[in-house]
Amino acid sequence: MIMFFSSPSDVKNNGHRRFFPYCHIILIPRGVSGHESGGITTFFARRFHHVTDHSCAIIMGSGDSTLSKIPNVEELMEETGFSPAHVVRLYERFQALDKSKKGQLSRKDFESIKELATNPIRDRIIGAFFAQGQEMVDFHTFVRILAHFRPVDKNRPKKANMQEPVNSRTSKLRFAFQLYDQDNDGKISRNELLQVLRTMLEMQVTDEQLESIADRTIQEADLDGDNAISFDEFRKSLEKVNIDHKMSIRFLR
Amino acid sequence: MKLLRSPAPALLLLGLISRAWAISVRNSRSSPVTVAAADTTHSGNSTGGNTTAENGGHGAAAITTLPIVTWKWHHVELPYLITLWVLVCWLVKLVLHLYKRLTIEIPESAMLILFGFILGGMIWGADKAQTFALQPRTFFFFLLPQIILDAGYFMPNKLFFSNMGAILIFAIIGTVWNAVAVGLSLYGVYLGGAMGNLDIDILQFMLFGSLLSAVDPVAVLAVFEEVHVNEVLFILVFGESLLNDGVTVVLYNVCDAFVSLGADKINAAEIIKGIVSFLVVAFGGSLIGVVFAILLSLLTRCTKNLQIIEPGFIFVVSYLSYLTAEMLSLSSILAITFCGVCCQKYVNANMAESSVTTVKYAMKVLANGSETIIFVFLGISAIDPNIWVWNTGFILLTVLFVLVYRIIGVFVLTWMLNRYRLIPIEIIDQVIMSYGGLRGGVAYGLAVLLDQAKIKEKNLMLCTTLIVVYFTVILQGVTMKPLVTWLKVKRSSKSELCLIEKLQNRAFDHILVAIEDISGQIGHNYMREKWNKFEERFIRPLLMKTSARKSQDQLFNVFHQLNLKDAISYVAEGERCGSLDFARSDNDANLVFKKKFGADLSDIIPDINSDLSDKDPYDIPLPSRENSLPSVCLDVEEEMRRKEVGDNNAHHLLQTHLYKARKQHRHRYSRKETGVNKDENEVQEIFQRTMRSRLESFKSTKMGVSQNKKLKPSKKDQVHKVCLLLPTANAYFESSYPSEASAGSASGGTILMRLSFRGIENPAFMPDAPPQTPPWSSSAQAEYGVAPSQMAQLRIPWSPGNLHRLAPLRISTRSNDSFLLADRPTTEEEQQPPNQPCGMKK
Q: Which candidate from B507, B521, B605 shows the least CB-CB separation from A179?
C-alpha cells in the first residue's frame, strides 16, 4: 500500500515548520491495515516531525473520522493546545490501553503497561489520572492530564479570556505537588514525604536515614514552621528549577 | 661571548641564576630547550669544556685538583629551564590575579597572551631572535592531555549526554563545514586575485581551513567559565570545542595526507578513503578511550590497599589512552576525553574519598598550569620577526571568513536542531555560540606542524593562525562579557546544594518516564531509563566495588554532602568560639547537628553490625537508636552552662590547650600515610569530648559519685598540668594500635576527670538526664564489662575509608569504650586517676 499525500498550504500548522513542504510518500507493507496501520503511520508521523497535522490526519486515512468520533474535540484541543495529530495519536493510545473497550480506562488498564512496572512512583502517577473518588478515566481527562507535559509554546497567542493553560509552570508544579499530597490537604506532611522517599530511594537506605532526609527536606522548604510543605513553599523552593524544561516531553509538542 | 638567550626573561623577573649568563653562554644557537623539551641535540653544540656536564657532571673531564664546588649549568640546563619557565608562567598568572579588577574586565587568557607579548619582547630584546617557541610536540604531548582530561573528567555527564546530539552535530558537521567553507572561500578569493602571488594550491587551502576550524576548549573554557552563561549554552559550546578538537586533528591529518599525495593523484577512491579514515580515526579514538576507562575503573576496584598512589592511576592510565590512540594513529584527544567522561562515575565511587579529592585538585593544578603556560607561550611566539609574513588580503579575509562561517554554521545547524529539540536554542544563545568560536593552542600547534618543505607559505599560514588566535581570544574574549550582559543571556544561577531540588528532580525523571510510557512514546526519558537500567544491571556490578554500589544513591549522596558541610561549618564555628559551647545556646545549630549526627550514625551502623554481630550485639552501643541522644547531650549542658559560668573560662582554656598541644604531632613524616590521622581528627576530637562529658556526667550522677566533690580544687589543678604533659605521653604511645588506644584512654581519662567533676558540680544536670536507661550505660557495662570494648578498640578501622569524615559515631562508640575502660579505675578508686601521666607526675 502506498500512501501519497500532501499538505495543503492552507492548513495551519501549529508552530511546525515543514521541512519538505510538499509531499510525502510512505510505504506501508501490504496486509497491514486498520488499527495496525494507524500505529505504523503514527510511528512515521513521530519520526518525521515535519509531517503536519493535516497531512498526519490524511495518513491516518480515517483521520478525520477518528477525530469526529471524539466528542467535543474542538474544545479539547482548544483547552489543551494539542494539535489534531496529537489528539488522534493519543486517542489511538487510549484505545490500545482500553482493554475493555468501554471508552474508559481503569486502574488495571494503566497497571498493565509493562514499562511502567518498574517505575517506583507508578501508583502515584496512575493515581494522578483519577480524580477524587473516581474509578475510571475518560479520554478527555486522559488528554487533559497529559497536557500538563506539553512544552510551553511561546508563539501561541495568549487569549485574555482563557484561564491558565494546563501546561503552565504553576499547573505543572501543582501536578508534581499532588503526587506527594495524597490526602489533598494542600500540604506535604512529613509522612507523605516519607512515603515518596521510601519508594524512590529503594532499599539502600535505612529508616533513620529516610527520616532525617525527610526532616531535612522539610526544613529546607518549610518557611512558616508548620513542619509541612505547602504549595507556596513548594513553589518557592523550586524557584530555581526550570520546570518548563523538566516537566515537558518533546513528543507531545 | 654572546649572552645566553634562554633564561633572559626569567632573569629579568626573578634575578636568579645571574651568573649563568656568563658561563653557560656558549650554546647560543642551541637552546630550543625550555618548553621545547624535544630537542636534545643541543648538547652536541657545546664546547669541550662542557662535556663534563653532558656526561652527567661526574668525572669525565680531567681535573688537576679536587674542586670543592663546580658550576654545572649544562648538567641541569634542560630541566632547570623548563621548571623556570613553568614558574615564570605561573608567576605571571599570580601577578594578574593581584589586580582583581583587571581579571574581571579582561579574561585571563587574553591577559596571559598580552603578558606573553611582553616576555617575548624581553627575550627578543636580549637575544635578537626568538629562541623560545611552543613546540607542537611539547604542546600535544605534555600540555594538552591534562587539559582535555580535566575537561572530560569533570564533564557534567548528564548534561553532556542529554545534549549529545547537538554537540556531535556541531562538532562534526560544524567543523567540517568550517574547514571546507574557509578553505574553499580563501581559494576562491585567491583565484580572484585578492592576495597577490602566493604559492598555495587548493589542497593547502583546505589544510589551512581545517587547522583553523578547531574551536579551542582551552580558550573557550577560560572565557566561558568566567562569564557564567547558562548550563545548556555552556555544555554546547564546551562539548563542541572539546570534541571538535579531535575532529579537527583528524581532518587535518586527512588533508595533510592529501597534500602529500599531491593534487593529481587524488581521485574519488582516495576521497572515500579519506572519509572512511576520518570516521575510523574519530570513532576508533573514542573507543580506545572507553576501553581505557573500563580498564581504569577495573583497576580502581582493587586499589583499596594501596590508597596512597590510587590517584596516580587515573593520570597514568588516561595518559596511556592518549598515547595508545596516538600510536594507533587514532584521535588521541577523543580518546582521553572519553576516557575521562566514562570513567569518572566508577572511579569516583571506587576510590576513597581522599583519593577523589586528590585527583580533583591534582588535575586542576595540572590543567590550569598548562593552560597558563600555553597562553603565555602563544604570546611569546608572536615576537619573532622570522615568522611574520604579512599579506593583508590573506590575513584579513581569513579572519573574516572564520568569523562569518562560524556564524552561518551555528545558525544553520541550530535551525535544524531546534526542530527536534525540546528546549530550542534561543537566538541570543546562538549569537553567543557563534561568537564563542575561539581559536587557540590547537590551531597554533597544528600550524606549527605544517611541513615547510611541502607548504611554501607555511609562515604566512602560521602568522595568520596567530592573528586569528589573537583576534578571537583577545578581542572576542574581552567583548564576550559585555556582550553576554548586553544581550541578557541567561546566566547560570548559582544554585546551592539543595535536597528538595534533587528530590524533585528525581521525581520529575520518574514522572516523565511514566508519562512517556502511558502515552506510548519512545522518547529521551524512556531511552535514558532503559540505559540506566542496563547500566545498573550489567555495568555497575562489573566496574564498581560492591561497597561503593550500595552507597550510590545520588539523593543520598547529596544528603551526605550536606551533612559534611554542616559538620565542617559546625566545627569551624566551634573552633571560632574556642569550644562547642555555642551549640548549647544556639538551637538552630543544635537541630542541624542532631540531624547530622543521626544520619551519619545510621550510615555507619550497617557496617558495624555486619562487622561485629558475630562478636557481640551489645558491644557497640548504638546511640542512633535514640535520635534524642546528641541533642539531649547538648541541651542538657545548656542548663549546666548557667551554673558554670565561672568555670567556663577555665574549660575554654583547657580545651584549646589540649587541642593545640596535640596538633603538633602531625609533623610525623610517612610516605605511606596521608594526613588523615584518625586519632587527631578535629571533628572527632571535639566530639569525643562532648560525648565523654555527657556520658561521664550522666554516669556520675547515676552512680552518685559525689565523693569526688571534695577533690575538686586539686583535681582542677591537676588537669591543667596533665594536659601539658599529654603530648609527651601521646608521643610515646602513638606508634601502634593497641598503644594508641591506651593513649586514647589516657587522654580520655584526662578529659573524663575534668568532666566528671564538672558533671558533679552541677546537680541540676540530673533531672535532665534521659529517663530511659541508655543501653550502653547499664547493660553493656553490667553484662559485658570491659573486655568487648577493648576488642572494639582494636577493631577501630571497621568503617569504610570513605566514611572517615563521619567521625562522630566512631568516636562516640570508642569514647564509650574508653569511658568504660577508664571507668573501672575511677569507680573503684576515685583517688587514683587512671592515666599514666598523672601518676608520673606524682
A: B507
* Grid coordinates given for B191: 583565484
Question: Looking at the complex, does the CB of residue B230 fall below 8 Å from at least one CB of chain A?
Answer: no
Cα of B365 vs its chain's centroid, Å = 8
A138 by Cβ neighbours in 10 Å (0-12 / 13-18 / 19+) ranks as: middle
Total Cβ atoms within 10 A of residue A108: 10
Q: How far apart are CA B442 and CA B144, in angstroms?
A: 8
Interface contact B501-A237, CB threshold 8 A: yes
Name, in order, each residue with C-beta under 8 angstroms of B681's C-beta and a sequence gap of 6 or more.
B804, B807
Rounded CA separation B126/A11 (Å): 76
**CA-nearest residue of chain B to A151?**
B422
pLDDT digits (tens, 9 = 90+) for B71-125: 888 889 889 999 999 999 999 988 888 887 777 778 888 889 999 999 988 888 8
Helix (H/G/I), strand (E/B), else coil: B290: helix
For A117-126, letters b (16+ CB in 10 Å) and e give eebbbbebbb
- The helix (H) or strand (E) run that includes residue B434 is helix B427-435
Q: Which residue in A212, A229, A238 is closest to B501 by CB distance?
A: A238
Provide, as residue numbers in chain A, all residues whose Cβ is less than 8 Å from the Cβ of B516.
249, 251
CB-closest option in B500, B517, B591 to A115 = B517
Mean of pLDDT values over B487-497: 70
Helix (H) / strand (E) element for B493: namely none
Which residues of chain A make contact with B630, given a CB cutoff of 8 A?
none
Decide: B811 and B642 in contact? Cβ < 8 Å. Answer: no
Amino acid B253 reads N
Q: What is the ipTM of this complex?
A: 0.73
B507 CB near a chain A CB, below 8 Å? yes
Instruction: Scan residues 678-697 of B and list those with Cβ closer than 8 Å to A.
Output: none
Closest-CA residue of A relative to B588 is A219
d(CA A221, CA B531): 32
B residues 512-541 lying closer than 8 A (beta carbon) to A: 512-521, 523-526, 533
Q: What share of chain B has pLDDT > 70, as a percent?
A: 61
Give the range among A215-219, B62-66, B631-635, B641-645 with minimum mean pLDDT. B631-635
CA distance B738 to B248: 61
d(CA B161, CA B790): 52
Q: How far is B503 from chain A (nearest CA, A)?
A: 8
Asked whether the predicted pLDDT for residue B300 surpasses 80, the reply is yes
Give how far B422 is from chain A: nearest CA, Å: 5
Parallel/antiparallel/unpaired status of strands A136-138 and A187-189: unpaired
Contact list in B for residue A179 (CB cut-off 8 A) is 507, 511
In terms of Cα–Cα distance, which of A240, A197, A234, A235 is closest to A215?
A: A197
Give the DSSP per-residue string, B197-222.
S----HHHHHHHHHHHT---HHHHHH
Hey, what's the cell of B103? 581579571
Cα separations (Å) of B507 from A143, B115, B571?
A: 21, 50, 34
Nearest CA in chain B to A246: B508
Name the nearest CA neighbour of B293 among B533, B542, B530, B528: B542
